[in-house]
Amino acid sequence: MTGRAPRRTPVAGHAVDIGPYRSVLPIAVGGMAEVFRALKPQPAGADRAVVIKRMLPELLEDPGHREMFEREARLGRAIRHPNVVEVLDHAGGEQPYLVLEYVFGVDLRQLARWAAQSDRPLAPSMVAFIVTEMLAGLSAVHGAKGDDGAPLAIVHRDVSPS
């Protein structure tokens, strides 16, 4: 398969179980995966909110896409930094998926939209803080090393306000 898969819109109310995770809410669909907010059942206490990134069905037969997805899982598990979403789990097989830490709150796109609509621009100190924290996370990604201490040579190519 060549080129990117067509973008799809998540279907409201479409809930599926993925592995041991219960899907609660579709979040987005991109070129390679669909993303869900889900719950991981816990043996005690409340279920844990997580994000599941599941490879698009139309890409499953493409070995190149499968390898990219598996590489993302391996690399994601190698990075530990408070400003980088943690990869908690992943599965290959018939329907590959990643399980990511769910970060509660609003994203930068929502914050910027709110600031513009309410005519309350973000303070320069807040903007500087956000950019500094984002760059610290990117630095951790780009400087990540494998178990053998060798650089993983990761180049993050998907930075967006959301």
List the SSEs and their pairings.
Layout: E1 17-18, E2 21-29, E3 33-40, E4 48-55, H1 63-78, E5 87-91, E6 97-101, H2 108-117, H3 124-142
Q: For the terminal residues, how far apart are their CA atoms?
A: 28 Å
The largest pleated sheet is described as: 6 strands, antiparallel
Spans with pLDDT under 50 lasting ≥5 residues? 1-11
If you compute it from the alpha carbons, what radius of gyration comes out, rounded to the nearest whole angstrom?
17 Å
Determine the number of helices (DSSP H or I, runs of at least 4 residues).
3
| Range of helix content | 25-40%
Query: How many beta-strand runs?
Result: 6
Shape: globular
Strand content: 15-25%
> What is the average of the pLDDT values?
87
Order of strands in the sheet with the most strands?
1-2-3-4-6-5
